[in-house]
Amino acid sequence: MPELPEVETTTRGLKKTIVGLTIKNVWTDLNTKDKRQKDSVANSRYFILFKKEIIGKTIKSIERRAKNILINLSNNPSTSLRIRKTILIHMKMTGHLLYGEYTFNKKENKWSPKEKTALADPYNRFVHFIIIFSPSTLLRIKNQTHLAFSDARKFGKITLLDTKDIYNSKYLKKIGPEPLSKEFTPLVLEKRLKVRPNGKIKTILMDQTIVAGIGNIYSDEILWRIGVNPERIIKKITKKEINNMLKTMKEILKKGISFGGDSMSDYRNVYGEKGKFQLYHMAYRRTGEKCKKKGCNGIIKRKMINGRSAHFCDTHQK
Questions:
Q1: What is the mean pLDDT of residues 84-90?
Q2: Based on the domain organization, do 106 and 204 belong to the same domain?
Q3: Which residues make beta-bridge pairs with 296?
Q4: Could you list the residue range(s) of the whole structural domain that residue 198 is in?
């Protein structure tokens, strides 16, 4: 699942490619009766309303909140009194957003990239949602371009919200603080962790109501670096370890962003390219391999903790 660095990489890519573009049309082949998707484009009735609201609107700005991408839309001049809207996208397990020129095969009901670039990577072929943009003289874009959502498992969430209410919506209001913000200090981290004093640190770090954006990959890497066992109970973690955890957390997340995210699995950036963070793993998915910590003779192990896999060295992680 894309975590903070992958979602941030995508957000930055979208800022460079789609801001200022106007939506000409939108398409999806998703069609579910699942009541949990009643406010998602996967629901055919909702998609009709979604389509009506966004066609003709221009992309005003892009934001990230935790693992959510927020695409803020401007109003048409003729509808300036209407409430501005924001498209919220959560990529879930296998989703990623791609930008470029696509062509549609009516017979196969399938979209494919026009050119054989990185967009043609096999991991990018599961396109189930498309936004079609008009050409833009101002942005010197001569042809129609497209924002495609590739999602092999179809778990992704795409919905539409009033921009003014988005941070108080059910999707964002309970999310914890952003770990890369200046306001996220050791004291803040300590207070957030102590909300679950008897919880295991691996599980708590991935709890989005505690800290935003961290998942399986980066929690493993953070805990490996600071020498804390993923099953350690929160109340047994010292202030010194919390200080080190915060410093390491910021360093590793920034490193993940600088490498364009992690493409060990499905994730690709908006150009269809792989990130490179997977080349620098110290723990995640290194089961059975020798620990890379200097002077440590341990072996990386994998264990299920509260239903999620943890990769760690039980020699130096105590």
A1: 97
A2: no
A3: none
A4: 186-313
Q: Same domain for 27 and 143?
A: yes
What share of the chain in percent tops pLDDT 70?
Answer: 98
- The answer to whether position 178 is within a domain reads no
Q: Does position 148 have pLDDT exceeding 60, yes or no? A: yes
Looking at residue 201, its amino acid is I
The structure's pTM equals: 0.96
- Same-domain pairing of 259 and 297: yes
| Active-site residue, from 2, 5, 179, 230 | 2
Q: Are residues 298 and 235 in the same domain?
A: yes
**Catalytic entry in 57, 64, 65, 67:** 67
Separation between Cα atoms, residue 287 and residue 299, nearest integer Å: 8
| Tens of pLDDT, residues 243-258 | 999 999 999 999 999 9
Over residues 168-224, the pLDDT tens digits come to: 999 999 999 999 999 999 999 999 999 999 999 999 999 999 999 999 999 999 999
Active site (annotated) includes residue 2: yes
Together in a domain, 146 and 267: no
Catalytic, 308? Answer yes
From the list 125, 232, 285, 308, the catalytic residue is 308
Structural domain tally of the chain?
2
CATH code, domain carrying 121 = 3.20.190.10
